[in-house]
Structure formats: structure tokens, C-alpha cells
Amino acid sequence: MRVAPKPVQSFRDDFTYSNSDEAIERFPFPFVEDEYRYSVNIESHTPKGGTDSIYEHFIDIDEHYLSEMAERAIVLEENPRRCLSMGHMALAGWDFLERMMVSLSTDYPQYFSLRRDKDQWHWENTLLDIQQDFVFGDESTLPMSPLDYMGRQVQGDFALLDQRDNDLFMDAGMITCPADWSLAFDAGMSFSEWHGPVPMAHSAGIFDRALKYLTAIPIGSPARRLNWTLTVNARMDTSPEKYPDWGHERTTVTAENVAQKVYLRVELQIMDRMPRSNALLFVIRTYLISLEDIATNPEWAKRMHRAMKTLPQPLIDYKGLTRYHHLVVDYLAQFDR
Amino acid sequence: MSADKIQVKVTRIVDVAPKIKEFTLVGVNRTLPEFSPGSHVMVEMQGQEKTYRNAYSLLNDALDSSEYRIAVRLQDESRGGSVYMHQSVKEGDVLSVTPPMNLFAPLWHAKKHLIFAGGVGITPFMSYIPEFLRQGVNCELHYMFRGLQTGAYQEVLQQELKTTLFIYDADKEQRCDIKEVLKCQPLGTHVYICGPEKLVEGVEQAAIELGIPLSVIHSEAFAAPKPGTPFKVEIKSTGQVVQVGEQDTMLEALETAGLAIPNLCRAGVCGQCSCAVEQGDLDHRDNYLSDSEKSLGAMVMPCVSRANSERIILDI
Ligand code: HEM
Ligand code: FES
After folding, report:
1. ipTM
2. Domain B112-221, CATH 3.40.50.80 — does that match?
3. Which of A106, A240, B164, B236 is the most buried (most CB within 10 A)?
4. Catalytic status, residue A225
């Protein structure tokens, strides 16, 4: 049985966030080899792993739903510019709302329901106690834009990419839990521009190949990939905008607290073609797990030790691990003897 | 990446020009996917001898996807598909189409849209115009054709565009002075062309002469289905011989024969399925190998690539 959403835990201040045994078991562990290198690790986003796997449905709703939605509300309250949309992306916003409402109500009928009579739609989200009658396509019948409205009800960050001249442009999105990048900064940039800071991958041709794949994604054939980094404390909002709040936390890691303080942060990224607007939807569904919880699985701890130990220096620096990387390797070494 | 095919029924066939027929398609036991202006579908036709696959633009307003309408011009140098559509397909027949793909979407931030259409090249623009009108954005269409063969949809376009429609019938000696048209366009105009190669080149040439950047000039390029001839793959280690049919990928054929090849994207970008080649003339279709690796011919990506020779040997 899928774990039901738990009462709200925090991703800031007192950091009450925790994973249940079930959440640990289904965690998307990203290291498939002893050495981690960038690659075009894209596959078709079709179900795998059976019931309760994070790959069972288009969007994975898990025990952290209420916590993540509460965290998102705080971030948007502080800074509404975490949700942006250029004028020409209005239709893509409706595409997004439709995709989410249809897939959530189909995959989780116990939590969400959607009734449609031509343009007249009725949406219910029992987890957040939301009921809404609205006219599809008419923004004045929703309390806010469709992207903003629906983005607050789905786990994960979202970017909507406009596709033109065989390239993708970051022209809309709701990004409240980024791994150190900013939507406001990247807005309007092309695929290779916003990937500018990433080391090693450009010259390896990874972005050229990835872009060719992405621009050819047809309607109804979503793709996915995993990406990862490390985060100090279970902090969702590691954005450049809030750097003063979290940057210094990297200096607080010690050999004594590394297992509790350092979290593996995995992004399940989903790419899906939006039918009405031809935009590409990019979902970043973030999962956090402490090193301590990883160590409950000896295979993971051993594998992660090897991946961390052999991580190229440019990746260590780019991912912001320079100050505490050695503490992570030392801690994990005990599981690889 | 193979998108699921959709069964559609032909509900209406009408002549819209001497050599162009319009087909209306509805989903068989399902609704059709929504689509965006400029989209096309690949239609699969099961002929007597072979399967034809042709790309056709969707003509209808994208707001209404209850049916798809496509227009097919009977091609002179017969490539089979259009002849089949004109002569063999009847109302009530069932065809299969891919979900809509869009490689020719308008640039929504353009200040003005300037269109050059030649003959059946009007088709991708039929879905642009209703949306431009709704958005209230400037649009000007220059439509060139031979009235004895093509020139479909003039009345509809006239109603929609009124004074911004310009018609040139070559069979009545009417010509479009492309350079004159391009000369007097406001800043922020984007230009779209669909038609014969000559028209595309003509517009591009005029733009170059006028100093207009080619980045505002867009022309339709259908992702032509790449047919493949059948070939055989010999597995060096076991001597097993696997037949790859016209419709299968090499990867699918190897899998069907019980060989497990690691793979991820199945689209020639991830590099997972890479196989060592012992011998054979290869038709590389992937985006993973570099040009020099391709010409060396020591590796092949069986998820998309094929053979030019009748038989290749894989060292797996
Ligand atoms: C349209 C979809 C995508 C979006 C919106 C996106 C966005 C981003 C962003 C904003 C970053 C952070 C860059 C920074 O440091 O400022 C990033 C990093 C990265 N992206 Fe993408 N990306 C997309 C697709 C892909 C794909 C398909 C690949 C496949 C290889 C890829 C590979 C990477 C890699 C390797 C990094 C570095 C991550 C790390 O080491 O933590 N991206 N991406
Ligand atoms: S499976 Fe990715 S290149 Fe063949």
C-alpha cells in the first residue's frame, strides 16, 4: 500500500523532514555504476518497478506531499517571481494544468477528481481541501494563472520551454526548490545558454545530443532522467536568491554530524510534449535522503562511496561540495571494506 | 522513440483543387490528441506491395481536434503514397496516423507574420491563421500556385485575411515580386515559407540581398520517414543470423532473436546500445558517434542505424 501523505514537516529552521522506511525503500538511488560521469541518461518515462514504485505513475505523489506544498506556499509568499510566464506561454500554462489534472485524477482517484463538460471543469483536491469550478482557457475564472494555480498542487518544480528554431527557451516556470539555479536569471535563455555553467558536458557533446532528443519528443511519449547533488540539511529551497540563508551551512558539516546533516538530493526529471502549445514540460521532482538513511542499505552505501571517491574535481566544485566532500567519502568508507 | 499509432477512419473526401483532395479523419473508438498550429501527422497506408508513410499538415483550427483534416496533392513523379491516397482510399476506410508532431510552429513573440506559400505548401498555414486572428496579430499571406493544378482554400483565406491575402496564379501569368514584398516589412516580422525548393531559395536569396537576417526566415522541413531495406546481421560469437525487416530497427530484431542489448533512449543519443562491428557497410543514423567514428565503422548504434550492405557482422 502506498504511504499516505504525512502531516506537514519542515524544510527550513528546525528541519523536521524525515523519510519513513517505505520512502527509503523506494528512493530513486541514482548511481548505476561505481564511477559517476555525465551522460545522456534519458529513457522513456513508462511505468517500471511495479506498484508503489516512484515510476508507477506520470507524477509521483508521496508521503511528503503536504510538506512540500506548505514549503512552496512559503517560498511564493516571500518571492512571487519564483513563478514566471512570458506572454506567449499562456496556452502552455493551460496545457500544464490539463496534463496535471488529468493524470493526477486518473492515477490517484482517492485524492483528486476532475469532471469536464466541454469548457466547464470541476476540480477537487481533497488533500489540500480545494474545490474549483472554472472555464478551461479563461483565466478570469481561476484565482490565479493556470501554471501558478496548478503548480501549487503538484510535487516537483516545473519549467515550460518554448520550442523554436530547433532550440528550447526557458520562457515560463514555477521553481521553488532548485539545486542552486534561478528561474528569474535563466528566463528567456536557450538550452545551451542556461546549461552554460555545467562543466565537462558541453565539450563531450552531451547537450547537443540531449537537445536533439528533446526537440523530437512527440505528444504522448514522455522521457525521464535522474540528476543528483548533495545538500546540507533537508532544505528544499537552495536557490541563489536565498543563498545567504544556506550557503554558510556547508561549513557546519563535521565528521560527527555528516551522516545526519548531509542529504543526497535526487531529481527525477520528466520531459513531456504539451499538445496545444507545442511547449516542452520539464518536471523536476526532488527527493531528499540523509546519508544515515542511505546506510540502511549496504549496497547503496558501498556504491555511493565509490561514486563519491572517484568524482572528478570539476564536478565536486560545480555541485558545491568542495568544503565537505572529503567528510562524505570518509564516512561512507566504512561500508566499502 | 516510437509513438503509439492512432487508428483513424476517413469520413469525408472532397476535391479542393484539380490535383488536391482533402481527407477528414476521426478517431476509431478514441478521441484524437490536441495539437498546435503547424503540426503534421505521419499517415501510414497499407498498400498491396508495401507500406507508405507520408507526412501531412493538419489543416483545421487547432482549437477543434474532434477531427483531423489533411490535404494530399497527387504528385507527378509518383512516390506512391499520394497516388494511393487519391486512388485507393475511400470514405469509411481505416488508416493509421502518428500523434501530431510540430516542427514548424509559428514564433509567438513575432510582431508580424509574413507567409509565402506555394501550391500545396499552403497546408501548414491553414492552422496558423485562425490563431493569429484570435490573437489579433498582424499576418500577411502571399499565395502562389498554378490554378490548373492547385490553389485550394482561396475562399476561406479571403474571408479570413481580406486585404492581407495576395494571390498569384502562374497559369494566369501572375507573379510575386518577393523582394518588393520583403522590402517594406516592419521590424520584428518573421517570415515563413512552405512550397517548392525554388520558392524557399528565392525568399532566402532575396533576404540575403536585402540584409535581412536568416534567423527570421523559417521553412518547413518534414521529418521524412526514413525507409530501410532489409538486411541480415550475423553474430560473430555464435554464428546466429538475424533478419532485420524494412519496418524493424536492428535493435528490435536483435531483441526478438533473444539477444539482450543494453539500451536507454532507443533514439540514437545515449550511446548505451553501442555494438562493435566486425564487418559491413553501415548506414549511421545516430547522433551519438562522431563523424570520424562513423567513417571508421567500428561501432554501430542498432536502435536507429542500419546497413547498406546485405549482411553485417557484429562482434557481440
Ligand atoms: C528542457 C529540459 C531541461 C532543463 C529545463 C534543464 C535545466 C537545467 C538547469 C537550470 C541546470 C542548472 C545549471 C546551472 O548550474 O545554472 C541544469 C544542469 C544540468 N543539466 Fe539540464 N535541463 C534540461 C534537460 C537536460 C537534459 C536532457 C540533460 C541530459 C544530459 C541535462 C543535463 C544536465 C546536467 C548534466 C547538468 C549539471 C547537473 C549537476 O551536475 O548537478 N539537462 N539543467
Ligand atoms: S539506445 Fe540510446 S543510442 Fe541506442
Report:
1. 0.81
2. yes
3. B164
4. yes
